[in-house]
Design goal:
Helix 5 (282-289) crosses helix 6 (301-311). 7% of the residues lie in helices and 47% in strands. It contains nine helices and 54 strands. The protein is mostly beta strands and 966 residues long. It has a 22-stranded antiparallel β-barrel. The chain has a five-stranded mixed sheet with strand order 3-2-5-6-9, with no helix packed on it. A five-stranded mixed sheet has the order 10-17-18-13-14.
């Protein structure tokens, strides 16, 4: 162990042996002062307690009190003292990592047992938050929203955009590998892909803190954003919740061609025997085919048509297929037979049909994506000072992945080019199942009213499985007397590429990716928090993360055997961390000072000879003979500072600064890819000695409270990103060594600003809107090509940085509702409207005669509006609710580029009028316009008949739902 590693251990021992830090910020604090209502003097010795809990405190000589370790939620806080009327402060909201101020004025007791009840006014400005943070209370902001998915809910917030795949989100220009997700203190991140696991049941969530800047010192492996989820706990009473919504079967495109109708009209319709505009007809086709001297392949026109029908046999899909649905529910309460022990169980299952119908086998349809997740939380108060919590999460995602394992998304049809139509009826997809398990055990021990600690142990396991479905090769269909065909085209077979008799649609030998990888993580945390005095809340802790990555993924095209790539390794990366933090709370300023130290080690061997002869195809089986050394650990010191400065009661400015790190992708650390078309030599080699990418972030923000109802939040930020990973290609002297590796050669400057306006939740109205603007300038330093032959100079990356494309976005929601107390007729109504808008992307089109290759064309902006209307009732102690959700309320149509072949798409772009055009070509058309309503008739739209259905996707969709709780 190196000298630097010893410094890490010494630091952790000092931290763990000293005072301080935090319950993973999964709890909050209530604090305030109690005074005599008549004299204004502070009252010492007043008992303050939270009803329904064992949490409480007493005021000191100056009338101050605080209650630590309060789980997020709404509470009634009581102040009680002999000689004074008891005061109950209702609807006190506590959020994780926050201090909620609750002050009391006690009046002398006139009547014995007199009590006064006050409904707390919820603060508009979070006075002690020195970062951009949005707290979403599930019951208020989620249950009435048309959004029914956790990941989609996150994407609505300021600074957050959708990523390249359904599982990805981008926060302030940083991808999923820079995002931390914490659930009740346990880290919920897929260590294989370095991205948060967003498959959670919404019914389990109490609140969500979305932090896009200024992370406290306790949080590591995060650079762009953090999702902190606090889940519900069972109480001493049973409660339940059920939500069921169904969308009637429908086609997810606007065309009258129900995906394959046009094909069947052309090749199997009444006129298919004779020539037409698109097909020469089966009579002429068979005449040409039978004209050779080989009678064994002769076929009749009727047999040819029947063979085509078998190749392209449709399944029930769209209006005749399955319905989209969502089922979610929860149940919680006391555990029978166990005192002071409660449980809370929640689960969800969601099915969404894809745009394109695909199959698992000839008998089992696979028409979409299924996502399910189940969560159980057990809470036991062993004593008044000891609390034990267990959480378990089980999630499954089941869908079809495209061959080669790419991120093509047939749920949303994000890729469909001129080649894809060849696979329209094929089984060139592979079933993909991902199973996630997470279990955590947390002990909370209150040492005194001022100090408590948490100890958490977490186990996480993720299984990825992608496999082949074998084709049924037995004779299945007699297309003419004595001639049979098997289960083609569905399923894998060793027959290589197979295509129908018209060579229009084909199936390669089956799905070309196999995956049986497994990721196991052990995570341990210790946190301690102490309220040293009225102004100082000191925290400290340490954590250990140990992962076993068993990568076993293979890309292969069997039958032809031209391609055979595989990645197979087992590694055990390790991370250690320690931190200290002090939260100073004064009347005019709240400041967080923190220091974090991380130790990161890929814990793997790396090859010391970049030109090893064992990297060539003839010696690749002996690659382990290449000299190796152990990877070096990295120590990252991360100062953190956040200052909040309330100016009076209605204004706040804040500032934060920090150094943040996140580990590289595992493929960049460990990836050893062997093979390629016609070869078996090394193609990709990871680098376990990579530095940890770093972001130095600055943020300045302003909050304004208007009328004690509306929060105006404005934030500007700058991020200096260094040591990001880039590719480097190594070229051997004789061409036998040629592979890609990785180094820390990418940098970026990210700056932007956000505006959020929120009207706090009231009896009749809740609303918010946000605006997001972010720009990235990125570039490279160092070499992109290195040659073993010293006569050839290494090729540097271009010195000029690349300007990112700015795409501002706007979102807003309006929620109108009536209280249930207004009666069965007028009470319980809710109307929620959600609007989103984002500027169209820009790109370069080479028809521009100028040499400047900057973006010269832009898509139309995209907007959408969703609506939810509901009615609640109160019947026999239940609160049933019926509702309807309308997605794409105005049935807006947006042109889909992937319905065009490359040539067709170029013809379309050439027909647009552009600023750099000449004559009739000059204008200001945006990409995505099309002829409609007598407009844009100059635009040329030429799409193959088979693909016209894909030109416009996602028409208006209805969901009908029923929800009740007790």
């Amino acid at each position: 162990m190196g000298k630097r590693s010893w410094w890490v251990i010494v630091f952790l021992l000092i931290v763990s042996g000293g005072i301080s830090m935090i319950s993973a910020a999964t709890t909050g604090k209530i604090a305030g002062v109690v005074k005599d209502a008549d004299t204004g003097e502070p009252l010492p010795g007043v008992n303050i307690f939270i009803k329904g809990t064992t949490l409480g405190s007493a005021t000191d000589l100056e009338g101050n009190y605080f209650i630590l370790n309060v789980p997020p939620g709404n509470y009634t806080v009581t102040a009680q003292m002999v000689g004074y009327a008891t005061v109950n402060m209702e609807n006190v909201r506590v959020n994780a990592g926050r201090t909620t101020i609750v002050n009391f004025s006690l009046k002398s007791e006139l009547l014995q047992g007199e009590e006064i009840t006050i409904v707390a006014e919820r603060e508009v400005i979070p006075r002690d938050v020195a970062s951009s943070q949005v707290t979403i209370v599930a019951k208020e902001a989620v249950e009435t929203s048309p959004i029914g998915d956790f990941s989609n809910l996150i994407r609505l917030q300021a600074g957050i955009e959708a990523g390249p795949s359904p599982e990805d989100i981008v926060i302030r220009g940083g991808g999923g590998d820079q995002i931390l997700m914490v659930v009740d203190g346990a880290t919920l991140v897929d260590e294989r892909r370095n991205r948060p696991i967003l498959n959670l049941p919404l019914s389990a969530i109490e609140s969500i803190d979305i932090i896009t800047g200024g992370f406290n010192a306790k949080y590591g492996n995060v650079r762009s954003g953090m999702l902190r989820i606090n889940t519900k706990e069972g109480t001493d009473k049973y409660s339940g919740y059920l939500d069921v919504r169904v969308s009637p079967p429908h086609y997810k495109h606007f065309s009258k061609d129900k995906y394959w109708t046009q094909d069947w009209n052309i090749y199997a319709g009444p006129g298919s025997m004779d020539s037409s505009e698109y097909f020469i007809g089966w009579n002429k086709w068979t005449e040409q085919r039978n004209s050779d001297n080989d009678p064994s392949n002769d076929i009749t026109p009727e047999g040819a048509r029947r063979l085509w029908e078998w190749w392209h046999r449709p399944i029930k899909y769209g209006a005749e297929g399955p319905a989209d649905y969502l089922v979610e529910g929860s149940f919680g309460g006391p555990v029978p037979g166990l005192k002071k022990t409660s449980f809370f169980f929640s689960g969800r299952r969601q099915f969404v049909t894809s745009v394109i119908p695909y199959y698992k086998t000839s008998s089992e349809s696979k028409l979409g994506r299924t996502r399910s997740s189940y969560m159980l939380k057990l809470t036991s108060r062993l004593t008044d000072k000891l609390k034990l919590s267990f959480s378990g999460l089980y999630g499954v995602q089941d869908w079809l992945g495209y061959r080669w394992g790419t991120s093509r998304n047939f749920i949303g049809l994000s890729y469909f080019d001129q080649h894809e139509q060849l696979f329209k009826y094929s089984m060139d997809m592979s079933p993909y199942i991902q199973t996630t398990q997470m279990y955590s055990l947390k002990l909370t021990h209150t040492l005194s009213p001022r100090t408590f600690y948490n100890f958490l142990v977490e186990y996480q396991n993720i299984d990825d499985e992608r496999y082949w479905v074998e084709r049924d090769t037995t004779p299945r269909f007699e297309y003419e007397p004595g001639k049979w065909i098997d289960g083609t085209p569905w399923g894998h077979s060793d027959v290589g590429t197979v295509q129908d008799q018209l060579a229009m649609y084909r199936t390669i030998s089956g799905p070309a990716v196999l995956d049986s990888s497994k990721t196991t993580t052990m995570h341990m945390k210790f946190d301690i928090e102490s309220q040293v005095n009225k102004s100082n809340n000191v925290k400290a802790g340490f954590e250990l993360n140990y992962t076993k990555l068993k990568e076993d993924i293979r890309w292969i095209e069997r039958g032809r055997n031209q391609t055979d790539n595989w990645q197979k390794w087992t590694v055990h990366p390790i991370r250690l961390a320690g931190y200290v933090q002090d939260k100073l709370e004064w009347e005019g300023m709240i400041a967080n000072f923190g220091l974090r130290l991380d130790y990161v080690n890929a814990n793997a061997d790396y090859f010391t000879d970049p030109w090893s002869p064992y990297f060539t195809s003839d010696k690749i089986d002996s690659i382990d003979f290449t000299p190796k050394e152990k990877s070096r650990g990295r120590i990252n010191i991360q100062p953190r500072l956040g200052v909040s400065h309330p100016i009076g009661e209605h204004t706040k400015i804040y500032f934060n600064y920090g150094h943040f790190y996140s580990v590289p992708l595992n493929t960049q650390y460990y990836g050893v890819v062997l093979g390629g078309v016609g070869t078996h030599k090394l193609s990709t080699l990871g680098n376990p000695n990579l530095k940890t990418p770093r972001t130095v972030a600055y943020e300045l923000g302003y909050d304004q409270d208007l009328f004690n109802q509306i929060l105006v939040h404005i934030a500007g930020y700058y991020k200096d990103v260094t040591n990001q990973v880039a590719q480097v290609r190594y070229h051997g002297k004789f061409g036998d060594v040629d592979y890609i590796s990785f180094s820390n050669q990418n940098y970026a400057d990210i700056y932007g600003f956000e505006v959020r306006v929120e009207k706090k939740y009231g009896r009749f109205l809740y609303a918010w809107l946000n605006y997001n603007w972010v720009k990235t300038k990125s570039g490279y330093i160092g070499f992109q090509d290195i040659y073993q032959d010293k006569r050839l100079p290494a090729i540097r990356y271009g010195a000029e940085p690349v300007e990112g494309i700015v795409r501002p976005s706007f979102r807003g929601t309006l929620d109108l509702h009536t209280p249930l107390e207004y009666g069965q007729l007028w009470g319980g109504w809710a109307l929620n409207v959600l609007y989103t808008w984002r500027e169209g992307s820009k790109f370069y089109f080479d028809d521009d005669p100028s040499p400047d290759r900057k973006p010269n064309m832009q898509w139309v902006a995209r907007s959408n509006m969703d609506l939810r209307v509901s009615k609640r009732f109160k019947i026999f102690g239940l609160e049933p609710e019926v509702y309807m959700i309308i997605n794409n309320l105005f049935n807006q149509k947006y042109l889909n580029r992937w319905a065009f072949t490359n040539e067709q798409w170029r013809d379309y772009l050439m027909s647009l009028k552009v600023p750099w055009g000449e004559g009739e070509r000059k204008g200001h058309d945006r990409v995505g316009i099309y002829p409609h309503d007598g407009k844009n008739q100059h635009v040329k739209i030429d799409v193959s008949p088979q693909n016209k259905w894909a030109m416009f996707l996602y028409p208006r969709q209805f969901y009908f739902g029923l929800r009740f709780s007790f």
